[in-house]
Structure formats: C-alpha cells, structure tokens
Design goal:
Elements lengths: L2 H12 L2 H14 L8 H25 L2 H29 L4 H12 L3 H13 L8 H9 L1 H11 L8 H9 L2 H22 L2 H6 L1 H19 L2 H5 L1 H24 L4 H12 L5 H9 L5 H38 L1
Length: 330
Amino acid sequence: MGASEILTIALTNLISPPVLAFALGLLAVAIKSDLRLPEAFYQAISIYLLLGIGIKGGVALRNADLAELWLPLVATFLLGVIIPLLAFTISGWLTKLDRVNRGALAAHYGSTSLVTFTAALVFLESTSRFVEGYLVTLLAVLEVPGIIVGLLLAARGRSESVAWGESLREVLSGRSIVLLVGGLALGAIAGNTGFASIEPFFGGLFTGVLTLFLLELGIVAGRRLPDVKKAGVGVVIFGLGFPVLAGTLGVSAGLLSGLSVGGSALLGVLSASASYIAAPTAVRLALPEASPGIYLTASLGITFPFNLIAGIPLYIWLAGALEGALSWTS
C-alpha cells in the first residue's frame, strides 16, 4: 500500500459525513453554541445503533463456519486480557497515577467503543473492503474481560473490597451488552430472510443515524477538551500513543487468526478504542474514588477523537501493510 493510497484513505475518512458531524460538534462547543440533541432522541438513536449492529452481526454469525470463527474468538479474548495489563503498566511509566486510577484507565482501554467500531465499519463498507460480518461477536467478547482485569488490578491498591457482584451485574445487564447480545440472537434466528424485511430501517438509514450520533458526541468531547490540561502531559501521551500500540496488536492478532484485511483492521480499531459507556458505569460503582476527570478525559476527550480522525485510516493501512509482509514471508 503506497503513500498515495494511505492519503486517500485518510482524506476519505476525514470528509465522511459522520466525521464531519463530529467536527461540527467540536466547532459548536468552540463558538459556545447551545446546540444539543434532545436527551430522549440521543438515547433512542444509541439503542438503534446497538440493536442494528447486533442484528446484522447475528445474521452473519448464522452464516459463519465455526471452524472459521473459533480462532478469532480465542485471539480476541486474549486481547481482552493483554491490553488492560499493558495499559496498567504503561500508564505507570508515563504518569504518577495511583493503582486505582491506573486500574480505571486499564478497564476503559481494555473495553471497547461501539461508536468508533461503527464509524470504522461504515467507512470500510463505503470503500468496498470486505469485513467478516461476525466481527460484532468479537466486539461483544472484547467488551467485558478488559473491565474485569482493570478492576482486579485496581483492587490490589485499595483498602476496601471491590463490589464485584454489583459491578459485573451492571456491566452484563447494561444496555450495550443486552442490545448487542440480544441483537445477535435476533439476527441469528431471523437469518437473511428475516433481515430482508427490516433492512430498509437498519441498513439504509444506518449511516444517517450514526451521523447524528457523532454530532452529539462531538459536543460531548468538545466539552471535555478543557480537562486535558488538568489531566497532565503523561495522560495525554498515553491517550494518543497507547491506542496505536493496542491497535497494532489487534491488527496482528486478526491477521494471524485468519481474518481478512478489513476484518483485521476492524479488530485493530476495537483493540485501540476505549470505552465511555460500559466501563465508566462499572468503574463508578466499583471504584468510586477513581477520578472521572482522568479516565473520561483520556477515553472520550483524547483517544476517541484521535481514533475517529487518524486512527481508523492508520489501522486500515497497517492491516494492508502487515498482510503484504506476511504474504511475502510465506
């Protein structure tokens, strides 16, 4: 993949409607506009996105061969353990955070961002790159282990015990997991025939709804940007640099487990992303003394914009480059 193609990928991503809507949200905050989506509408479209991704993934899962699926599943689970361990260790090198706040960061970076995944999926589909439909299954697999590992690491630095039962119940019964797993089941049961009847709603409208969702997230992220100064230089470096490391691991694991270039790029996006829905809920319950100003600023204020603007094309390029290198060596 040459320099011209890399530039084309980056520019195509930057001028896509969802990314431009995110930039508009940032601009609205900068000029002190009162622009906001109504809370009820924001909640409704988040449900739509989660359920739609789950259903489409379930249809693909029904058509997938188990022999093709098991190795990516194992690789994804291992990523869910390794990435938070690395996040915890590297944040200790770059910052002066205590174990509790480093564990909170590890929980966020070990989990995933559905919106980053969705934006990358829409972008890959718009450029006609093949992606295995069951990648949403890998998203569900990667969502939980990182949170558990992060809480375990933080627990070693606390005098009080972590509220494991309530925290895990909150994660597993939370909106993200219920809608994703429920959507997977619906799609797997309905199959291609059943999905055809709802495809105009969950297919044709999907990018437009995502664009509205990213407009609101641009506003939310813009309001977090002032917190970057308070977080410290080490947190900023971590928020920009760690996703590249985690994304590289994800792309490599995808290729080695047999995923396509597009699927490996998407696993790289998942690995590089940081949660700002499921993980904050669990951390707030289990680690109330952890600072939201640190973990939300890092995940939503730094890593999310970086991945959305620069990370997605970077991981797509990396998947192509590594696939070429593996083909050459073999």
